[in-house]
Amino acid sequence: MLNLSKQKITGIKIWFALLYYKYFIWLSIAWYTLTMKLTKTNASRVSLYADNTAIADSLDWGRLYKKDAFKDHLTHPSRLAKNIEEDKLFGDCDDHAIYWCTALLKSGMAEKAWFCFYTMIKKNSSELSSHALCVFQKEDDWYYWTDYHLPSCIMEGRHKWARRSAEVYDATPIAAVMVEVKEIKEDDTPIFGKIEVIDIL
């Protein structure tokens, strides 16, 4: 009886996640845009990088992870650059993702980039969690994904990034979205473009 109840609760959670991604994901994008604006600083700028290794090195390969102190927000890349300069903890997964997008586009190492996030369910439990990462396209027309480490090529096509990432956490993705970063302004502000909800199930 208890297991049945857990299954029902998990089913309800998945239903709400799918509903949110399909109809209300724009609220998250609006929130991220607002919180970037509120955390922007004119004191620092994102560096120009020569290669992917230099970006990963500057983020200490994810070891500078810092959980958000309040409601999940997206920190402006200029503030993240300042954290790097001052040897402070960097930020959480969505901060790493937007910094990768900004650094790659600004440094001319990507033709296109997407700020992506998804919700997954652990294979050995009913636990749901979310994760953010960067997907980008290079001049060779291949697509890659990255969060804390060096980018990995998505051989199966650009929409398969969620499954590739979820494998790391022994989980299965249930909903995912790709938000195009169509422009990086002179003050390092990423401008979001097309929002694409990925059909996973």
Molecular structure report:
The protein has 201 residues and is of the alpha+beta class. The chain has one domain (2-198). Helix content is 37%, strand content 25%. A 6-stranded antiparallel beta sheet has the order 4-3-2-1-5-6. A hairpin with a 5-residue loop joins strand 2 (128-137) and strand 3 (143-146). The mean pLDDT is 94.
Total number of domains: 1
Question: What amount of the residues lies in strands?
Answer: 15-25%
Radius of gyration: 17 Å
What's the overall geometry? globular
Structural class: alpha+beta
Low-confidence stretches: none
Average of pLDDT: 94
The secondary-structure element order is HHHHHEEEEHEE
The quaternary state of the protein chains shown equals: single chain
**N→C terminal distance:** 27 Å
Number of helices: 6
Q: Main β-sheet: number of strands, strand sense, barrel status?
A: 6 strands, antiparallel
Strand element count: 6
* Helix content class: 25-40%
Strand order of the largest sheet: 4-3-2-1-5-6
Structural descriptors:
single chain, 201 residues, alpha+beta
List the helices and strands and how they pair.
Blueprint: H1 2-23, H2 25-39, H3 52-58, H4 77-85, H5 93-106, E1 112-122, E2 128-137, E3 143-146, E4 152-153, H6 161-168, E5 171-184, E6 190-198
Short synopsis of the structure:
With 201 residues, the chain is of the alpha+beta class.
